[in-house]
Amino acid sequence: MGGAISLLAVNFVIAQIFVATFLVVAAKSRPGRAAAWCAAGFAVASLAAICEAVVPFTPVPRLFAVGAFASVLAGFCLLRFGLGLFYGVPAKPSALSAFFIASVALDLAIYDLPRGTLQHAFFYQTPFFLIQAWTALAIIRSPRRSYADRILIGFLVLNALHFLVKIYAAMAAGAGATASDYLQSPFALISQALGAALIVGTGVAILGVMVKDIVDKARASSEIDALSGLWNRRGFIERVTPLLQSRSANGPGALILTDLDRFKGVNDTYGHHAGDEVIRQFARVLLDLMPSRAAAARLGGEEFAVFLSGVDLADARVVAQGMRAAIAATPIVGLPETATITASFGVAAIAPGESLEMALQRADKALYVAKAAGRNRVECAEPSARVVTPAVSQWIRH
Q: Is 302 a catalytic residue?
């Protein structure tokens, strides 16, 4: 009994560590609600250790034995609810409640069956298997597929399968004749040892996906321009650079560089609030008119860039013309109805093997030409002077 009691104590302490950790995550991060439900799950499940430790010494062992079963199952249900919130595949509280009540009723019904038999072991372990499998399937249904998510799915599947293994282990090793004999049985050591390992693995895996989510969102926030909602220069470069490897017949794509005309005059005449609204409205124009696989950024001040993947120069020019016409026809809140905002555009087709920086320089030259020619117009850059042929690995200058 001493070994089993020690493992119960270890499992209880481990659960409390995870409770505290998830509460910190809940207080400090965006997945707060999900983390709070996970903390509640570990807290409730840990009560099973207290119940099982009391069973041999109480005159009402049925109450605490069923309480241990109910605590673990309730903890798993809370984890299912919390992870459902996190992954966007929520479980209906009514469905979880019905499952929990039916399972506890089943445990009460089989309480007097001989321990260590197939009937008792099967009906006792099956609800645990089902809730773990339900949780794993919910995450599989979600669109998230990072390594952290797959590791968590793996631990949930292991959790589910280990309850099936415990059916055989209870019969092979012996689970004691009654609930009071459980802690003295060889099965208790097996069950608690496996439980400790899987508690740690699953808890760490859940923390892993939540911490990754926090880091990913923080990184995305650092790459988003707060005023326009578009990528900033850093975010734009990181997203576009991999797309330059496109094998499209039209090449990697095209780059549109655009600059609002006489923007300083807007700030000076109507105030920075009106200038900010111009930036926001222009960003919406870019987002509305660019294709789905495009990326848009505010590079700084009133300068913007749009990358069009797999689009040739002629089509990119058409897109730029549409953007130019749209902003000129868009009324801006805070400006007089007679005020018109225009923008100039430089368009460059990106050659295979050409760097984004080189394409930006060529588009910038075209943009300068548009500005010098009177603004509110679209100019195209000359084709890149450097290309790479499939048979030659170095740059060739024509």
A: yes
